[in-house]
Amino acid sequence: MAYSLNVIYTSFKKEVEDLNRIIIALSVQQASIDRDTHIEGCFIRFVVSWEVFCEEYFLRCLCVGKTRSQYQIKPHVTSSRNTNEAFKRANSRRRDRAKDYLDWLDTSIIKHRIQDYFRANSRVHKIIESPDKIYEIRTIRNAIAHRSIASMSKFEKHVKNQLGYLAIINPTMADLLIMKKRGLNKHIFILLSEYFLGLADRLTK
After folding, report:
1. Distance in angstroms between the alpha carbons of the first and the last residue of the chain
2. 113 backbone dihedrals φ, ψ, rounded to 5°
3. What's the DSSP call for residue 105?
4. 3-state DSSP call for residue 187?
5. Residue 178 lies in a domain
6. How many whole angstroms separate alpha carbon 52 and alpha carbon 103?
7. Model's pTM, two decimal places?
8. Residue 108 in domain
9. Closest-CA residue to 162 (of 191, 128, 141, 197)
10. Angle CA(117)–CA(195)–CA(100) in degrees, nearest 5?
């Protein structure tokens, strides 16, 4: 039986739309620890949602994944019977999903994982079509999770490159996420979330 890819796309799409709505509402509030905590929390939730989408997508395609246009994606050898069996197959430790996890933010690991099970022209390879974007959200996540000065500096430099300037002196991570790119009038957070939503759309249509 084929697994629907529309189900995971619809779930991810709703999550992104809800988070973007929250970010827009928070962006007009005065800077405060409450506002910043919510913005950072939204970003962490967005990254986790992307990781969940990637894992579900990959495992469903290791069985047989059915796109929204009814196209079937299969591994180049034998299909797994279910997603738990697929997880054990893709996991070098061979533990089940309740006891372990797969990394979906390291492009070198993801690339090898996909190459091991799918043909070179498989749609699954689109997951890593833009390593720079994956590196970017991983860097931001690390800066939020670890308060890393190095990660914060990398993201601040990226935002400055995107905007051509920084709107305020000594911005917080939350400030950077809600700054707007010149010409597009969109928050950095929303530009990132829309990129990954578009990628999810291409992977599943």
Report:
1. 19
2. -60, -45
3. S
4. strand
5. no
6. 10
7. 0.90
8. yes
9. 191
10. 45
- Identify whether the C-beta of residue 23 lies closer than 8 Å to the C-beta of residue 39: yes
Strands 72-73 vs 186-187: parallel, antiparallel or unpaired: unpaired
Does residue 172 belong to any structural domain of this protein? no
Within a domain: 19: yes
Per-residue pLDDT of the chain (205 residues; tens, 9 = 90+): 789 999 999 999 999 999 999 999 999 999 999 999 999 999 999 999 999 999 999 999 999 999 999 999 999 989 999 998 998 888 866 666 666 678 899 999 999 999 999 999 899 999 999 999 999 899 889 889 887 788 778 777 877 777 777 777 778 889 989 988 877 889 999 999 999 999 999 999 9
Q: Which domain holds residue 8?
A: 3-129+187-204
Q: Characterize the bridge pairing of strands 186-187 and 180-181.
A: antiparallel
Tell me the C-alpha distance between 93 and 203, whole Å: 27
In the block, tokens 């738990």 appear at 84
Spatial strand order in the sheet of 72-73: 3-4, 65-66, 72-73
Q: How many domains does the chain have?
A: 1
Integer Cα distance of 1 and 5 in angstroms:
13
Considering only CA atoms, which of 29, 93, 83, 44 is closest in space to residue 61? 83
